[in-house]
Every structure is written in C-alpha cells, then in structure tokens.
Amino acid sequence: MHELILGGGRSGKSRCAEARAAAWLQTPGHSAALIATALPGDDEMRQRIARHRADRALRVPALQTQEEALALPAALLEASAPQRMVVVDCLTLWLTQRLMPIQGPGLDDEAWQTQQALLCSALRHAAGPVVMVSNEIGMGVTPLGREVRRYLDALGALHQAVAVCCARVTLMVAGIEVRVKG
User: Which residues contact 89 (CB under 8 A, 6 or more apart)?
Assistant: First the structure.
C-alpha cells in the first residue's frame, strides 16, 4: 500500500515515515530503502542533512539510504521490490531541485509536467509499498512573488496527483497523525 504523508515543517512527517519503515522491517524477509532528495546548498543544509542521517541511523538502522535529488522516478523504480518498502523524503525538496535548482535553469512547465507524470507512473508500477513525505505549504496566504506562486501551484498539483496513486494520505499536525484518506 502506498502512502503520502503531508505536514508543515517539523510536524513529524519524517519520523512517521521512519516508523512505517521500522514496522515493515519487523517482518522477516522485508527490507526498506530511503530515497533522500536534499542537496547541500549551504553549510546549514549540510548540517541538517548530516543530522537527519545520524538520527535515521539511530531510529531505523536497517533503513538503507540512497541520495537522489533529480532522477526520483527512476530511483523509485530501481529501489522498489515486492518485499522492500521505499520511503521518499521528500517531494518538496525534489520539486525545489527541479524548478529552482541551486545552479542552472529550472524546468519549464511542460518539462515539469513530464517529471510529475513519470513519478506517478513509477508509483503506480512500484513492486512494493512506497511512503512519500512532503511539506504542506499551501494553507496560508498567497505569496507575492511569481516564482513562489508557481512553486506553490506545482506542489499542490503534485500532492493531488500523488494522492490519487496512494491508498492512504496522512496529515501530520504537531506530531499527531490525522488520517485524510484510507
């Protein structure tokens, strides 16, 4: 079963996804892989990534981590297997890398739509369960900047497309799971 876990910053999304992986790993013969989408663009982000790695290693030592900031659909298909759960953390950073990369131009709308379709196709064809984590940032005021509005629109559309492919959608609020679907 696929799941999308949404929530605000520091709402417990990643910890919830890790708990899903830890529970999955309790069954003999099961494995779990995490696809991390963050890129270390500055010192603070490098420290964040290092902290996440260390925390994950303590909480779920058997969770194998692969870092892939751009080719997420291909990485998801490659990592997926019937007895392996794949955790993607997170869609928000993947979208950022695709639309507003640290270096070079971002994807135009048509190229982004292709990437979104590829991700949904990979999700539908995944051989085992997939848990995707993403930030829900569309619950506030509309941003003033055109680029930020484009990003917000793209993230909302991505969440809707992924939610269609997931049997379960969970919203994290202050570390508490709120079932939205499933």
Answer: 13, 14, 17, 34, 35, 36, 37, 133
> How long a stretch of residues is the chain?
182
Q: Residue 43 corresponds to which amino acid?
A: D
Alpha carbons 37 and 90: distance in angstroms, whole number: 6
Tokens (6 digits) for 157: 């559309």
Q: Which residues are catalytic?
A: 52
What would the pLDDT profile of 30-39 be if each residue is shown by its tens digit? 999 999 999 9
Q: Please, is 15 exposed, middle or buried when counting C-beta atoms within 10 Å of its C-beta (0-12, 13-18, 19+)?
A: middle
Among all chains, which residue has been given the structure tokens 């619950």?
Answer: 139
Q: What is the distance of C-alpha 128 from the center of its chain? A: 16
SS3 string, 23-82, reads HHCCCCCCEEEEEECCCCCCHHHHHHHHHHHHHHHHHCCCEEEEECCCCHHHHHHHHCEC
pTM listed for this prediction: 0.96
Q: What is the pLDDT of residue 142?
A: 80
For residue 168 the two structure tokens come to 């379960």
What is the CATH T-level fold of the domain 3-181, as seen in this structure?
Answer: Rossmann fold (3.40.50)
